[in-house]
Write a structure and sequence with these properties.
Blueprint (H helix, E strand, L loop, with lengths): L4 E7 L3 E8 L2 E9 L5 H16 L6 E6 L3 E2 L4 E2 L12 H9 L3 E5 H12 L8 E6 L3 E7 L2 E2 L31 H5 L4 H10 L7 H7 L5 H9 L3 H25 L3 E5 L1 H22 L6 E4 L6 H11 L3 H4 L6
Parallel strand pairs: 1-4, 4-7, 8-11, 11-12
Antiparallel strand pairs: 1-2, 2-3, 5-6, 8-9, 9-10
The structure holds zinc ion (ZN).
Zinc ion binds next to loops.
Length: about 325
């Protein structure tokens, strides 16, 4: 990693964040709500943030990590219900404004690159990052290379089928996907289905779940307080994670898996041990790899955007904006 100034931008569904990095640490960081109105408003907000964090200081490159789907080869954010608009010409708009190289990656790719370049994954050639939040995202480095794919949507493992007999609906239109069972926005529905099959005592979590109101926050706090129905749902979701993680292990053979995202970061105590317990049944001869909390918590994606600008992986550099 070279000791140079870069600007990192994290385009999330809720917040838009930018920071100036000098070396490997953020110097100035700013955050605003992500505009829900149009792609032009998003671009204007990012330009404003970059001017704020750079304060006239020179920088060498811009790294952008965004929610997907993306078309990295054309530098676009495609339509996503999370934003409500799409085909945002993000790469070239920023490049034309600032006349610096612009590197675009999706958020989970950035998350794994942050581990490899700046985090606990330094020195590893095979590693993965999982984000557990409203959705489920995976980034992977295999043989030292960041996996990107034709347009930048490789390893969409949140949409791996983990239950072929299930009709559990996923936001993508498919059924039985990993994200359908574990995505924060899907957890109330999963809990409601489990409530219909529940023969145990009618606890507070059970009553909430029956009405579709067991949010991830309530689920994990009630499980922590000892509610047996909440504990049952947590165990079920951990089993779904274990199935998804086995698919990841079979696909990429990682030495270590780093996990972040708000649902995981606040509930690691209830997720990590349960996932590892269920994984034992699934892994067979492959064994359970290192599974750890990600290095940068809530800043994982922002650190990843910086890592991509400081030390661009070839799979992203080939599609960068060059002034
Ligand atoms: Zn799906």
């Amino acid at each position: 990693v070279k000791d140079l100034n870069v600007v990192a931008v994290d385009v999330g569904a809720t917040n838009l964040r930018a920071a100036l990095f000098s070396g490997t640490s953020p110097v100035r960081l700013r955050k605003v709500p992500t505009p829900r109105t149009s792609g032009d408003d998003l671009i204007m907000a990012i330009i404003g943030l970059i001017k704020e964090v750079s304060q006239g200081e020179d920088f060498n490159a811009i790294g952008v990590a965004s929610i997907g789907p993306l078309d990295i080869s054309r530098g676009l954010i495609l339509y996503t219900p999370n934003l409500g608009y799409g085909n945002v010409r993000i790469r070239d708009s920023l490049g034309e404004e600032f006349r610096r190289p612009v590197y675009l990656a999706n958020d989970a790719m950035a998350g794994v690159w942050a581990e490899k370049v700046l985090g606990k994954g330094k020195g590893l050639n095979d590693l993965a990052y999982i984000t557990m939040s409203t959705g489920l995202g995976v980034g992977a480095v295999v043989d030292g290379n960041l996996l990107v794919g034709r347009r930048g949507n490789a390893h969409e493992l949140g949409h791996a089928v983990i239950s072929f007999e299930s009709d559990m609906p996923c936001g993508c239109g498919g059924v039985g996907h990993w994200e359908a069972f574990v995505g924060g926005k899907n957890i109330p529905r999963v809990a409601a289905r489990l409530a219909q099959l529940w023969n145990g005592s009618k606890t507070r979590a059970y009553e909430l779940a029956s009405r579709g109101g067991l949010s991830p926050e309530l689920l994990y706090s009630m499980a922590r307080e000892g509610d047996p129905f909440a504990a049952h749902v947590v165990d079920y979701i951990n089993r779904a994670h274990a199935a998804g993680i086995m698919t990841l292990i079979a696909a990429y053979d990682p030495e270590a898996i780093f996990i972040g995202g708000s649902v995981y970061l606040y509930n690691e105590d209830l997720i990590r041990p349960g996932v590892i317990k269920h994984l034992q049944r699934y892994v067979g001869v492959f064994g359970v790899p290192r599974i750890e909390r990600c290095s940068f918590g809530d800043d994982q994606v922002l650190e990843g955007a910086a890592a991509i600008a400081m030390s661009p992986p070839s799979s992203i550099a080939r599609d960068a904006y060059r002034p």
